[in-house]
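Run log // design_07
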């Protein structure tokens, strides 16, 4: 009898997780990191770009997938940005590779030079977007806890050492160590 209830509980947990994943997918995984300054999402389609721009007024899109002129979704994003006077910054990152100090410096320069608010996106809005959101949050004076929350399953990121995207967690740990060195 207990085994039956356990199986039901596990099935309900999986069903809830599947429903939440479907919601994240349907919503474009759009979230506010810092109101009026930084928003994160999955790769937006043209309808989402228009709706989100009206809602959030972002002036820069930071595309962590890089430029892909042969992809229709990229061409639509580029056309949208040009039509609205929104800066499109293509900065390709791999979620399975740690970032170098130079790459971190380049991201920090993008933050300094970009007109805000910024919409940052990768493919799913979970891993690369988590890293960039966490770095932005720390440089904006938010706590480590706030920054680490960007790596949570709430956004679709699973901070587990055996996961391919754990390189993003390792990069943020190195960035935090760098902040400690420079602040001491």
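design_07 sequence
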């Amino acid at each position: 009898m207990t085994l039956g209830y356990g199986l039901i509980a596990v099935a309900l947990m999986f069903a809830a997780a599947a429903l939440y994943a479907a919601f994240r997918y349907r919503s474009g995984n759009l979230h506010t990191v810092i109101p009026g300054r930084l928003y994160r999402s999955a790769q937006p389609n043209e309808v989402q770009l228009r709706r989100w721009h009206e809602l959030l007024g972002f002036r820069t899109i930071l595309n962590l997938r890089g430029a892909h002129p042969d992809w229709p979704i990229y061409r639509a994003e580029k056309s949208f940005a040009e039509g609205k006077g929104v800066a499109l910054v293509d900065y390709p990152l791999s979620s399975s590779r740690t970032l170098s100090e130079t790459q971190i410096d380049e991201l920090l320069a993008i933050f300094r030079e970009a007109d805000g608010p910024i919409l940052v996106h990768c493919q799913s809005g979970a891993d690369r977007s988590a890293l960039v959101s966490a770095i932005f949050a720390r440089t904006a004076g938010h706590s480590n806890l706030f920054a680490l929350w960007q790596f949570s399953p709430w956004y679709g990121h699973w901070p587990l050492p055996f996961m391919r995207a754990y390189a993003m967690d390792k990069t943020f740990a190195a960035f935090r160590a760098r902040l400690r060195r420079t602040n001491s």
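The first strand starts at residue 31 and ends at 34.
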